[in-house]
Records
---
Amino acid sequence: MFFLIALRISSVAPIALLAAALFHDYATVAAQAQTSQPIKKTITVDEGTDLAVTVSPDHSKIIMDLQGMLYSVSIAGGHATRITAPVAEASHPNWSPKGDRIAFQSYMGGTFHIWTMKPDGSQMKQLTFGHGDDREPNFSPDGSMIAFASDRAFKGSYDIWTVDVRSGALKQWTMAETDEYEPAWSPDGREIAFVSGAGAVGKAIESVNAAGERHNVVSLEGDGRVEAPSWSPDGQTLAYVRFFGAGMFMNSARLTLKGAPVTALQSNDAFPFAASWISSSSFVYAANGHILRVDATTGSETVIPFTADIEAARPQYAHKQYDFDSVSPHAVKGILAPALSPDGKQVAFTAVNQLWIMSLGEKPRAMTQDAFYKQGPAWSPDGKTLAYVTDKGGEESIYLMDVATGVDKPLSISPAGAQIFPAWSPDGRWIAFQDQTGATLRAEVATGKTDALAPVTFFPGRPAWSSDGSTVAIATVKPYTKRFREGTSQILTVDVATKQTKFFEPAPFESVTTRTEDGPVYAPSGKEMAFVMDDLLYTMPVDAHGLPSGNAVRLNNETTDAPTWSGDSSRLLYLHNGELHMLSRATGKITPLPVPLTYASQKPEGKMLIHAGRFWKGEGPEEQKDVDILIAGNRIEQVTPHTSHVPEQGLRVVDASSMTVMPGLWESHAHPNSHNSIYYGSRMGRLWLAYGITELRDMADNAYRAAEEREAFDSGAAIGPRLFPTGEAIDGERVYYSMMIPTTSEAQLDRELERLKALDFDLVKLYVRLPYAWMVKGDKFAHEEMGVETASHYLLPAVVLGNDGMSHISATSRTGYAYSRSFTGASYNDVRKMLSQSGMFTISTLLNMAGYSENRTMPEDPRYEIAPQWEQARLKHTRDTVVLEDQKDGMQRIQEEEETVASDFRDGGLILAGTDSPLDLPSTSLHLNLRMQVKFGLAPWQALETVTRIPAKAFYLSKDLGTLEPGKLADLILVDGDPLVNIDDAAKVRCVMKNGILMSVESIAKPFVQLPEREACPVN
């Protein structure tokens, strides 16, 4: 299909040069990804968000980076001509001194490298190769070399390098531990200026010569940072961008000359790219959405007007059909963390919210019968005891169950926090586990006494003991640099006696697939460890103390998760696309192990009548008064004016005459089965419902946890919203989060897509380091094979290449900046037009705590006590922090986002509200989002549509959800007050109905919080 797709993602080979011509025709690429021809339209823009520019040596032309595509335009302004395709992912253009070539960085192939091309976009040539990221090219004054920033030394930071344009020879110019980036040549070609700092926070601009001698040019004290240096032709003036503020976003960004912001300039949102000098007194740069020409003598700036066409393509395909009414049995797919017994005759696992043991060839038997959370079973070495996790005692804790009797008890009497991922030591004396901070600990089985094993790491995987008990190994991320957070998920070994740690790569530039149940796990023989890499099963030899001592060896060719060993090391049990498989270590034979287990969706019988004092159907500014809603089973049968006559004998009637009845709320961006959420247990689902959230759109999660939770919620075995789940996001070679799949080959991409299909997920998430060309393939599969939507962090794939939407207005980006929002929080008309005119959906995940300064009582809401204690503390700490500080700048950034939300809404776009919880605070953050929408421009009914009607439309579920109308599902809430008058009232939830089942907030919270009794859901 594409030349480049056939290549290994981590190494862009010369064949990519041939691919450049193919990538140029991006309309063909987009069309190939759809079941039928996409709907196309041209979007014309005249502003750019995080626009970058370079001027030709004769000062007649500008090449600009607009939304990740390079355009050519006259320096006088006018209509721009696109010269690169979206899948080329070209940025940071820099014109050669002779005017014959343009240098740029490209992400084609899955790693940033330096390329050149002619000014018309032809004759693309790749100059750098390998696994390192090469960024920010800058031609030397004689055009013979290009300076760039790179982490290719793999020493933990970025350095300044050069590449010879003719020979490709590389030279490293800096080697400090700080990150050094954004190089700029001095006019005489003897030195290179660059930004230096800790990670992405540049606090100085230094200069280095070919001999490695350095000197300081600019130093910054206090908040803020510096970026993008460039020298005037006479070498007398250094221009750079100064950012003011602290944290994720800046308050303003000003062009700076000779160490001082140019106060005469009106632009306060300078983009983080170097100015392009025309003379020693004038230059061109980009700020506030415009290309600007500046006279450095007077400080005046003139807008260079432009227009540019972006060819949008909206995918057309047959969407997944849901049967929300069936109560027929379904085969269980959510088999979580299966564990093979030491004798190899039984398997323990969790499914449909219960703990099960299955003798091979027999039916599973349930070892638990309650609605509390369970996960992580682990057999004791003698096979007599199961350690597993449950929150029936309040927080997630490890319990020890006698397999023969089913009697269990807590491992520790008073655990200080959550306990997950139990792992027995070979002698049965200890159990290693992790807590909610990411620390690895151990508990003595006899006494319950705990101590630390390994320091806190970022969401580590399940610990494993070496056969001699001297070493514990976990999978955890090792970032390449501090400038960007991504790295590889490596094997970290811990010496139990000394606590010394050491990283081991599963293979060069590869990762353990996920940091949950994918290993490493030691063979009891003490000779090897097993883990999942490339989605396949591997083993690696280890020495007597469990340290890796050789290369990884592949054992199978099928997608693998959660491997465990038999006690004699002769067999490995694992999951394959929702099924159990057993592999013989001696023969390599793989034997499927059926799990005869089913579940059925919970659906009520009979009818119920709700008398609503106020009724809002989920659409428009009007509400009705005194309405009867007749519900039959799980669907709405009638909505009529209230009558005192009960239409049917024995009909249950709910008196909501003092309340407002409205649709249940959509949380359109959540991760209920990864990160902090895996420590919530059964509290998480209850917390959503208690705040009126009946629909939950999963935007990336641990696959088997997500599948298990959907089945538990649907069957009523656990309490929670209607879940539309997905598995891990498909990422590139470098990863950060534990629920991202590091994808390093097209074959692995195919396997991962098939896994998502086999588990019947409802979305495909394409993450930060996956190149656009592979996103196209992901779109094609999701649409044609699954009928589901795709989403990424990026705007361009959603507009042009086939993604259905963008999961944030802006979020983490592999570029280090976002084309959808500047560092000050502003989005310009290129973004707003693309959002509203393309037909894509966009989710506003506020991720800004400043709003709690005006909503101070949220932490005191007794419902939030459903959350674990440390999450309650996080909300209170957030509130207490913001109320003590001036939130003017924070509220300004919220206003910037909400103006984009309002613009998208009013122009007919599909704008949704979400939170990215639990990275943000679950439930309360969604209501904070709604309140901020209203504060900064939307009417309450408009804000509420972003959590009712519009999500259902965006996800093609309007036939069943989003509004309260006859024939639709009975997912609704009863609230005090009138949310169409006061948006705060949307949080005053009294009763929740999901799929026709009515619950009071008190009953939802009851296992964990005793709320004050009241007549919440009065039924006659």
---
Amino acid sequence: MSAPVWPGRPFPLGALWDGSGTNFSLFSENAERVELCLFDGDDTETCVELTERTAWNWHGYVPGIGPGQRYGYRVHGAYAPEQGHRFNPRKLLIDPYAKAIEGPIRYEAASTLPYVPNGADDADLHIDESDDDAAIPKSVVVDETFDWEGDDWRRPRVPWDETVIYEVHVKGFTKLHPGVREDLRGTYAGLASEASVAHLKSLGITTVELLPVHHIADEQFLAERGLTNYWGYSSIGFLAPHALYAATGTKGEQVREFKGMVKALHAAGLEVILDVVYNHTGEGNHLGPMLSFKGVDNASYYRLVPDEPRFYMDFTGTGNSLNPVHPSVLRLIMDSLRYFVMECHVDGFRFDLASALAREFYDVDRLASFFDVIHQDPVLSQVKLIAEPWDVGPGGYQVGNFPVLWTEWNGLYRDTMRDFWRGGASVADFATRVTGSSDLYQEDGRTPYASINFMTAHDGFTLWDLTAYNEKHNEANGEDNRDGTDDNRSWNCGAEGETDDPEINALRMRQRRNFLTTLLLSQGVPMLLGGDEIGRTQNGNNNAWCQDNELSWFHWELDADRESLLEFTKRVIRFRAEHPVFRRTRFLEGRAVGDSPLPDIWWFRPDGRRMTRRDWQWAEGHRLGLFLNGDAINELTPDGERIVDDSFVLLFNAFHEPVVFTLPPPRFGRRWTLELSTDDGDMGEVFPARGLVPLEGRSTVVLRRL
């Protein structure tokens, strides 16, 4: 293979095919030489030097090179870890801007370590001269054209107050789905299939949030255990959809298939949000492999310890932290985000460990340049932005402290609700979270939908397991059950794991319905963990990040309890969609609003009387009623019409014993009908003002005013 190189252009970075050839550009501020390495079908390597350098971008144009061309880089420079530099041209590197990467790291084929692992403390100071091209997946030139068939005009653009998020894994969702063609199961095409879309639509969710789909680099120790990084929080390609989720091929076909999935979900009215991991990469610490960034320009891409640049700052628990303070690294993040919005049509992002991106120097800074750049960007400022508002560094827990355009995973909501339903949280804390967490979001100009409410997520117990296990059971992970959190705030209802006891099983089902009802009728944006609606279990594993098997995959053959849970979930989601009083865009005020003489919300005790200061301070209170006034919403539709809804009473009993609630006086409503019950109450039953409503222990009732 011969490859003449013309000067080319420094921008855009990455590989861009123009129909006649391909322009290649790679950023490296500290490199001394850069070689572009082209591979043919027999893996024969041809390296050509990129001699042009503009603004630290090494670039060249190769005529005749087009889509499907496999390539990588060898970057020359100092191997001086004590100075932060780890250049090693014997190690083939993935293009940080690759639009496609052909597959997994093959650790068994060659050593990807840039040093000789001799067991000594200073092993990483001594360069390894062995070649690793057999282990490194090749970057691939892609054809970026795609027929979106008018998708620009039919993007769902679901308002935040109408949003119901469904967190789901691309592979796990369809891997065992009998309605999906076998060759499409576990892929982008499988998620876009008729059976998959039918389930999502029937469920009533509006927005699919995908666990990481940027190309994943499994950790070597997982490969040695026969495991993989199933969750995918180990990115190595920020512009490349993960190749192994594609049914159609890995030589660029994965890009087209990913776009096809987005187009199909949009056609069904469903948004697509990506869980993105810009806080670290899959290259680990100073003893980790060299796959891409570490060999391209270690000192630029990573945050190094200031006085000891041999070592990495680690705010993520993975061994390294990406360096968004460097303008070229910040540009990579922004280019990745814009690419997936503009070229792949995604609707938003959930930022993993977002606090790590907000560390300008050491402390978390809500005015960090990362936020400034996004806020001024005409594209990114208009999509959905969700922060996981913590990292593992000092001061990293930042719930409630992100800027005004951002929403946040509300970990305080999760913890409070779990505690309440097992009898451990105060009614005051419960009430604050049910009404949108105004203590976190109101003062800085945000609204209730700044709070992304969730009971369960990929990290932790599933809903089924939350009510069946007190302790984690992570033995399958190979770490002697030491991994995963011990702070589960779960309750097994009287037996650890599966049981035949009918009373325990009935209580567990009631608790699952309590969690779902509370989640979906709280102010804010609900997020449902995919599979919770069908009773997915991980057998007590609360950290199934490396379990790419039936422990994590969805099982679609449902018993009677799981069928019942599915139907209940659909019903509550539909109920939320029908009633704007449960998804307000302004915080409740506890007073008369607009023309209604009644307050917009009114809290009461089981005896029907208003909650007093003493009642709110009573630590043992587990029972609470609230009135929501549908005549006092005081908000407008997009067409400028006033929103009016039914009024409701919600009754919560988190105590283990039954209770009889007395309904409020007639001025709140003369007659009430039963709309929802987590204890299988008689729907449609009518109660008068001051009427008595019995609640089983651990149950919820929702009444509508007639």
---
Amino acid sequence: MLVFTLMTVMSWFLLPRPTTDPQKDTKSKGKIIVEKPIFEDDEGSRYRNEQDRQKVERIFANIKLVAYAPQETPTKTHAPSDRGQKSDQLTVTDHLYRRKIVLKTTGNPTSLRDFPICIDLDTQQWIEEAKLSMISENLYFTDQDGITPLPFHIAHGYGKKATRIWLSIPELPAWTTQKEIYCYYSRSSDYPGFKQIPAFPPQENYYGWYVLDELKDKHVADLSGNINPAELVLSTYEYPWWSNYFYEDKSYILFNDYKKWWKHDSSKGVYLTVPGKNLQALSQKGAVEFWFKPYYITESITQHFMTDTGQHIMIGMLPDRSIFLQLGSRQNRIIWDTFIHQGTWYHLQLSWDFAKKQAKLYLYGKEVPIRSGLSSFSWNSPKALGDLHFGGYYVESSSYGFSGFMEGFRLYKAFLSPEQANQNHKYNHFRFYFPTHTMEKEEIAQSNKEDQLSLDFATSNTIPVNEKILINTIYATPIHYGDSFSGSVYTGKEDLVNIIRNPDEYQQVFGMSSHFYSYVGTEVSIQESNLLEYVSLKINDPKLITDIKISFSWLVDYSHPYYPYRYSSLPWMDKALSWLFPPANACGPYYSYKRLGEARLKLLGIVNGVCWYKPEKPFYVNPLATIMQLEYLPSKQKGALHIKMEDLIFLDSAKQFHRAKLHQSKPELLFERERINEKDYQHFNSEYIAQQYPMEKGSVELMISEQNELALVLRNTGTDQIVFDYFSSYYFQENVFTHLLVLGQENQIIKKVLLRDFRTHPIPVGHYLFVPLLFEDELNRSDVFRVKLLREERANHWFNENQQTKIISWVLDNKPFEFRSINEEGMIWKEIRKDPQGRLYINE
């Protein structure tokens, strides 16, 4: 068995460097780059006999430095050679745009008239494209003729990707499978269509119509057009059977936002309330309709679907799963046998006419027979009704409430027939409320004037500063800065230099090293919605940047019991608890950052040493933004990079430019949320500074040569040459391996390679070092070979991070994201076998 170390080849690696670049290896010639090694004498000699010397000479005679064609990434010049533009022209149009919306209907056998439907539109995109006003809701809809206006109501989300809109469709004809309508939008509200938007048409049969899908606040619109809005109310009454056993992930359920409403106080309830002022006729006759899904039906508790604040009329469910209608006292009830099952959706309709002594209950559109109470029931009408309540708790003295989900409420003025009950069951359904739809391509419906705005970069400082747009320029500093645990808190006054450790990733210009989200950005305060049009940066050498982008984010506080509502809406007790126990006091923050939008920046020109950029697409920034970040992709060139923000230019809804107010002060939000110790930060950089070190990127591989040799390949996969100095050797032995063994099929050691004291000439970019491990005449020693890697623990290195002047990265098989656990026991890396012709192949 031949045992050798690469320490012996050290003398070859220490030869003087060649004065010319290495030649490319070809299949026909296979140029040998290295010269014959000169062996050390005396104590430095590793080989004690002539036989070992001859074998090692053979190895060195076949070591090659081989050129290959690496995969090249096209680079671009970031800085214009002619210094670019000195000014920019901005065209702002106020065209009226429209899109056809095709609604996919279900082909109902009956026509639906004045039926409300709901769609989601991306109004944020239209605002960012400067096609829709950012402050006024310049939208309207028409029927398929493109003329007849449709009533609509924006439920929530104007200016966001999901803007929820309710529309009233005059007619959905029977058996149709699609319906076409049009959406019109513009920056300007001067078009006639915006002045004639009708309200929802009043439907005479209804008192109110309420759908609670994905509510963003407590207000619920009346879809019947009768202007009886409802409201969701959070109850403070506590009762133990209202607990945590709610598992519903459908978006169309009442209380679908229960996690939002009572996640941090599960004993509280939510109920829907409708003011009783316009509902007094219900004390004589009427009907109520809704869907419900009950829980806790086996508890010995009477649950209430509906009641009024005077407790004059109640509809509920008894512990035996029957449904009742109650007027006044508990002894005055009509009871229906319904055998309700837990966790199942039911459609309920109950009609009454007290003067005619009638009450009928329908489930799924079918009448349910009365079980008891009819003969003794007192039909005396209440003199007055209070506000109606559906579900939840509403009084502190009694346990009136419902455990479960409710949806699709409709209040009627008349006693409904069996045919109406059947129709209601069919069409009070979410497949009708939320039809699937497609948006066709945009077209200009009407043209208006175009405004040409001009910005002279040299005189941009004359643009007024907007005090409602504040940018706190906290530039990024090295990650170890402020590390009080290591005792290395920086107390100097000089700006600190960031080290670019991975030039293939975007680098953050703003932010701080923190406990939770390092370098998330810097704080901003945006009080008015605007379009970001220009960014000016002072950059010492723009050629060091290949790409740059800007983004704004929103701090999402999940600890807020009324998320996403404001602190001012909290009850006094919750305010007190929030003050006593602020969020993020322990590992596991109750908040995160949500990206509101980002845009790549295009370099227009360089004026007076300042680079002027323009977002590649219009960038809409609204008051939700609390964090701003600037990120760039380094180029392959080396050098110190300095970046300082000079200006942000915004355009408001009146087509006027504004400059943001740049300042530098203590970042309140970051210090509070990120658990940053203010004492650790004695200095904030006046600009961003970064240095890109040379980066040695290498891949360790095995190769079968054309001569049927097994070889170790050290491939340069980066953009800088590799020099195996002490730093590189230490990294390799600590992170890759110290020993390489070639084993036979009986686990006998055939070759042993030690990486200790490894030295070599530079491996240029686009080259690899070819080190033969097994020659063809040695293959008869085994039928199967295995390559095993070991890594021994080494002594502590004698250098510190400040002495290191390059970034080192070595991986196996050019797979940087594949973890290999290599220790003293070793890991079988590869298995090499022979095919029937005796040629080696790597068995993956």
